[in-house]
Amino acid sequence: MLAEAKPQGVRWEGVLAGEGGQGLVVAGIILGEAAVLEGLHAVQCQWVFGSAARGSLSRSEVVVGPEEIAFPRVLKAGVLLALTPAALTRHLGMLGPGALVIVDSDHVPDTGLVPPDADVRPLPILRTAAGLELARSTNVFALGALVALTGVVRPENIEEALRRRFGVKAEPNLRAFRAGADLAAGG
Fold it and tell me: What is the pTM of this model?
């Protein structure tokens, strides 16, 4: 089931986590840019754990709200997107009650440690993006699923943020975003 638009007046906190090189930091930045286009406030923090960015555990924290954000870190994530097993286990302690947990079903098959009140959504993100020849835009594909499932921002604002960021090279990312949303919708 897809989420309706996020209620106005609510602070939204999300974590996008995986391996360095998967582009989740950029996906978090795009999400923040889309929130600003929507007239909301947004902050994004990024972390890379390990000696090298590519292949190490990485995370993008995004906080969105209707008012100025005094503390720019996620306190209790309402959403966790995890593309690797390490990304899931490392960030379970950040989850708020009833959080939505989106995992790549092929790479994160074991969700047994996720709190029982969480809403776990396993999706074949990496495989589906690769099958559609969108592997280079897997981050935006995953962002499409996240936005479709949460309603944190309107899809048209993500698309505008993609156009602004990528210019004439935006088309593959627009396709990836729409395909990720379609996957989350069951299509």
Answer: 0.92
